Amino acid sequence: MTWLKKPVVAIVLVTALAGFVRFFHLAHPGELVFDEVYYPKAGCILIGGSDEVCMIDTDDEKFWREDKWDVGSWVHPPLGKWQIGLGIKAFGMDPFGWRFTSALAGTLAVMLLAICAQALFRQVAWTYVAGGLLALEHLSVVMSRTALLDVHLELWIVAGFTFLVLDRRWIERRQMAIEVPAPEPVPEPLGSARPDGDEPEPPTVDAALARDRLPPIYSPVWRPWRFASGLAFGAAMSVKWSGAMGLAAAMLLSYMWEASRRHRRDTTWPDAVLRAVARESFGLALAFVLVPVAVFVLVWLPWIAHFDWDWVKWWDTQVGSFRYHLRDGLKWTGIDPDTGSATPTHPYYARPWEWLLPPGRPTSFFVRDLGPDIQQILGLGSPLTFWLNLIAMPVVAWAWISRKRRDWRAGFILVAFLGLLLPWLRISRPTFYFYVLPLTPFVVLAVTYFLREISDLRIVVRDRRTGEVATNPETGLPAVSTAYVYRPFVWAYLLASALLFVWFWPVLTAGQISDVHWRAIVWFNRWI
Length: 528
Description:
This protein is mainly alpha-helical. It has helices at residues 7-23, 39-46, 59-68, 79-91, 95-121, 124-135, 138-144, 150-179, 207-212, 224-239, 243-263, 269-306, 311-328, 383-401, 408-425, 440-455, 487-509, 515-521, and strands at 333-335, 342-344, 363-370, 373-379, 513-514.
């Protein structure tokens, strides 16, 4: 079974698992659920469907079709709706057609995360773990089986950060290639005669000095993976404006990594930062400003062409979208006309700090009461993954800031996670639990990092006075156990995660179950 240890096999297998759980019985339920009342209709409009085909029924929808070439989802950029429309074009305006590309996007997100994990950890076991955890992550499965924009945003966010890691590997390899000196000839001993009888000439260059002369930091403008990352983040912004959060985090990581490369040359941190800014800003501006803006405008071109290249109308639409998201759109509370008191305007609003803390406030996408039975789709993150993250993310933070560690991989996970989360804490508009979806891959990476750390831990006996590792009196060797005592916990956790996914499967896919079974799954009243 050595073939299972190959990275490409691990990536293929976790991708296949993700595809199976996302495409299996995808057309159920056979109706629009939750915000599917917006995005499939918008996608159908974009591909040229009629009002009848696109289920444009209300006067409000007909107005938005005429005025915005959309429905009520006009406040979001069009790329995610185009992606949904492609599925409708291929398979028709039915549940399988409008959900097809969401399932595909969720599957590809797992594949990309597995590639990212392989590039980070360089061990196939953790490629399986990271890919498998995301493949069976509850919210990721729900969002992959519904035609909303967020899974398309997740795909491009994961792509952007994966390409960023590959860019780091690309530049490090090329720097190493130019730093490895050519093998030096072994000097002949003084006094030894050459075949022609002449004495060997002394070397003209000090060999030690030559070895210390390292070439300058390799800093090309053209870095293919960096530009691919910028393209992916441009696509993320073209699905939802919140994709810009990932772009900002990627730019910060790039500057940090470039400063670190220069600092390793015994350059002080201030000098390293200044040199990184001076040498990398032009390339970063091209990859992370020009390319994303170009992608964003390119995605809008069909819309602009539809309105006879009316750029003023396009600009007014952007301004209106910003106003909706920042001020004029959703409201946390409204005045109840009967009581005159402020009440929540939607039962499933969840503030960003609630996304990560148990029990959370998940979103119910679909409910059908069948008397003694029930069907539901509950947009809930995997409890074992999100709850373990409360321990894993602090461990990741410590591994990055600790002087003994300074693990750049931990820094990557933490900065990406915080970059996608912290801006939401400053946004006043109402939010839903499923907005956490683009953060979920980095929650999975943090949990994978934590499991990897504890799997390698062994018991070490230290001298109480000196703190040094004690000596085993029987063997004379250091008193370190040969057993990895926490690996059973890792195996138990992974098994429990798989079993919990099977247990929750009915409320992720609108399976028909008894009320008793449903209550055994829906543990908290806030999950109802």
